[in-house]
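Anyone else keep sequences and structure tokens together like this?

Example one:
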Amino acid sequence: MSRIAITGSTGLIGEALVRSLQGQGHTVQRITRRSSAAGPDDLVWDLDAGTIDAAKLEGVDAVVHLAGEPIGASRWSEETKRAIMDSRRIGTTLIAEAIAGLTDKPDVFVSSSAVGYYGDRADEVLTEASSAGEDFLAEVCIAWEAAAQPAKDAGIRTVHPRTGVVIAKDGPLIDKIELPFRLGVGGKVGHGRQYVPWIALEDEVRALEFLIEQELSGPVNLTAPEPVTNAEMTKAIGEVLKRPTVLPIPTFAIKALYGDMGATLATVSNRVLPTALLDAGFSFTHTDIRTALRLALTKAA
């Protein structure tokens, strides 16, 4: 069995990954900001001070870096945008430099990224070979991935899972849309033609484990093989909840409520395909958006 260190272990994805790994008999070593929450095998890091108890990482088999300031928790003030950027750039640099300096280095560094890398691309099909976008989230993802360079330079296999919208109970999408849709006032945003690159939480966890085990490196899209448009997802939510979805939501209303954060997350189009995963032989459990939504919304009921 392996010893795997994880940042962001209390987040939606992190908690699910920890449960899965421990269920398979692996030892999970949490990297936490709070010393009071650290177990005897865990270690503490401090982004503000730029410190980490790196000695406890000696001999670890893999490091999975999931930590980062949430992008959809509040409106994007300049301070919030700086926190989103710095938490990823500074945190990733700290972890990458720490493991690069170890005597007994990990075999793999799974360092998170996101589909925001590609920017707003309408109906263009996007794979790992596609170019970066030019908006704020693209800039964040570019800096996020670049910050892992010390690990790469040290010869550690480094993978960047570019995760899409995770469909899960308590996930960022379900949290925002469940109530209005249950009340019958949910609808497509704007024209509804923007693509949503989704993935079920179960497949997100399985894919991360796949990246630990397989000899993949560089960017890997973690999205279901069949992205859907906002209008298609809206229709599927209505069918699952048995609620009408006839009234479109104007983009100006989203922006008035959530600012640039809401407008960006609701209207950007990313038609992303998981080419690297499929080519490596990964098999998705959930390929139909209705199945994934039914699971998440039933659990949320």
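And example two:
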Amino acid sequence: MIVYGASGHGKVIIEILESIDTPRIEVWDDAPKPPMWEYAVLPPFSTGNNDDVVISIGVNATRKRVAERLAPQVQFGTAIHNTALLSKRATIGAGTVIMAGVTINADTKVGQHCIINTSASIDHDCVIGDYAHVSPNATLSGDVHIGEGTHFGAGASAIQGVRIGKWCTIGAGAVVIRDIPDYCTAVGVPAKIIKTREP
């Protein structure tokens, strides 16, 4: 597996891959950087390695741009920590990373190039759009939908059935009890919209 991006997020992905005994791990980055532990940081496409790629960039919009740039040249894999509990009826898109202690329940659909971060809990029938990030210790009750590129903050929660639009930001610790439109930032308990940006 190729980890694209020598960052703190990349460190976590490397340890996910180690947890599942990935036989070969390479780290690529566009800029010269020091090694990440025993892994040299290499220029992209410098080795002829055609293993699957996971993009280790935490910023959702940047991860999307890189994925679109790389898509014609690589295949994307997934990185799922060996302590994650995934329903056999959940589906996980290419390029997605699922970190330690995550629970994903039945008939949930996680899109491509998502981050499901440490100890997040996602219940049945949820839909997570491409490039979304569900942060550490976040909780989604059943049938919650999160749109493309949305960042659902650390420790935030959503009651069953709510719909959160694309490219939203839900603040850390927020409690979402009603739908949130596209491009909104919502914070607090209960979550209230404090900002809407242009697409």
